[in-house]
Amino acid sequence: MKTIALDDFLTEGILIEKKFRQNISQINWKEYQNENVLIKGCSQAPIPTWAYLIIASNLAKYARKIYFGEARRAIEIFKQN
Asked: Contact at 8 Å (CB) between 64 and 80?
């Protein structure tokens, strides 16, 4: 399972929307083609719901399944038909 960690999108300990959107636009989403992907929450800062939704909406075009949370207790939030 591939993981996208939201900690990787923090700028000086916070999530800045403009920088986040720039980083998201640079991701090669095709690398997640037919993969199971975990969107791992952030332990260092609160993450707004819109950030999860942006990542999930981009992944939904490629990933086989999308999960949220921690690897041991991941919750399936999307499944490709």
From this structure: yes
Residues 73 and 24: their CA atoms lie apart, in Å, by 25
Regions of the chain with pLDDT less than 70: none
Its pTM stands at 0.90
CA distance 41 to 27: 18
Domain coordinates of the chain in residue numbers?
2-69
Long-range contacts of 26-31 (CB under 8 A, 24+ apart): 27/58, 29/58, 29/59, 29/61, 29/62, 30/62, 31/2
